[in-house]
Amino acid sequence: MLKKKKGVKTLVLVSDSVCWKASVTGESKKKLVPVESINIVPDELLEWGASVGAKSVKFLIPSDISLIEMSDLDDDLDDVEIHDAILWESAEREGYEPEQVQLSAVKADALKLGSPAKSWLVSHFKKSLISIYHEACEVNGLSFAGVGSLQQVALSYLSTQSEFSGCAFAELDAVSGFVAVPAKKGKEVVVRQLSSGLPPEDKVMHDAWGQRLARRMNATRDFPVTMLTLNSNLMEIKEHVGEYLPNLQVNLLSIDDYIEKFVHVVESAKSYDMGNVSLADLPPKEKDPRTTATYIGLVMFALVLLALGANWWNLADSVEVYQKRIDMNDELKKARSSAAGKVSSTQKQLSSLRAQHNFLQNNQHFDESLKIVLNFVSSELPEYTRLESLSYDKKGMKLRLVTLWQKEINLFTTELNKQLQKKPLLIVPGNISKEGRAFFYDVDILKK
Question: Global pTM?
Fold first, then answer.
């Protein structure tokens, strides 16, 4: 654990996506303000922290988490090298650009879940967000000391408490969550995202989200579950889970009852601490090993400038003659540029007229009966779905759709088929392929 200097206070800002909560080491008073955006740090909390003697600021915000095993890491790597190796591996798995994110991590075997020795619970934070926090701290005369994952810290604390021994852990709120299941009976530890929070009022969507939650929570069937909620109503969460997992033993906890414990964990965390709890921070600027050579180069450059200045006085008499030639050359260039512009404009008009002529000469026109397809696709595509491509010929149309929600696209194609019965058109299902989380559908619409 990081040992703090005597008398040095740290301001910890915690966001549960609803409120920013501020706590300062050694101070009993707390402050909170509504969250306008995770990209906006409330100045009043930073000013309050500075007013009670805080020197640095740490942030704790919600994030996605995943378990990364790196069993092939060399034992002689230092923390920074381990951090960079995990960052590149995890960013590629999660679909991030490694150059655009930084990593916070918790050493997984410290969670007492039976994780492999060389594994970490990781979260990614965009460098652009970290830069915003950096700037906000600097404006208020404070030092930025890192940003961590609220879910990571919650799991890090709860999993080490004897009262929760033998439990699986979950977090669920109105947007998303995660589940962590200990290793048991030859099975590996499981950590996965719960991408469904509380579902909407729509019955179809409600069932789809609930069934997905049940599938992802299936690994907890042999364990009692300790579930933390960040900002949702406890009874609403309990009813939602009980509707689709009636036999699940759930102990619901509210973040408000444990926030001080989580703050205590993050107060001792630091950047690049890959053996404990690590916070994300911008990488330090690399020192230039050629600083001395740079200074020597600058001196030589200054000497060259002095020599050039001396020569300039000798060439001053010739400048007027050359300037007149330059002015005449500029006038010729302007005339040529003007003529070239007129030629280019005329060529564009000619190309446009040719294109119109070719279009009018073309006897193939769009089939009126296929307009219903375009109208339906443009107005009825479900959420998380887009039209990837469309082609048309005398036989009909070919659509290529991409979706993250397979069930909704099936409902969409069924309704489209009903609409097509009004016209002499026929749907012929094509190939279905998957790339990452996305499904690609090929649909042929032929004339009968």
Answer: 0.61
